[in-house]
Amino acid sequence: MQETLWQKLILNCAYNAVSAIVQLPPGAMAHREALRETMREVVAECLAVAAAEGVHFEHDAVRMVEQIEATTPGRQYSSTAQDLARGKHSEIDFLNGAIVRRGMIAGIATPANRTLHTLVKVLEEKPAAHV
Fold this sequence. Notes:
N-(1-d-carboxylethyl)-l-norvaline Dehydrogenase, domain 2, 7 helices, mainly alpha, 131 residues, single chain, 67% helix
């Protein structure tokens, strides 16, 4: 059960904020190596925090990003992107923000998650955009 919850958290941490910031659905993100690299960094940090909490996965960050790209609907924007477009606060504090907080407790640096969290928090303060 713990692993399943972590998998969902990792998927959302890797995909939601990036999609919201660049305002692209997953189908348009997969071809951009810089976005894939950012997602891999986010996943690697999440895996490190999960491991510190005793949860281990058989897949590495590269494989997990490939799974995210293969299973996320191609034209659907992330819930975080949709929230920002509607001028609503997102769940970012419970996604990337949670990884940052848990990483601090475990003594694990989470710069990619921290950056995405910060950028989405700034975007939450802007007027609604049209997606």
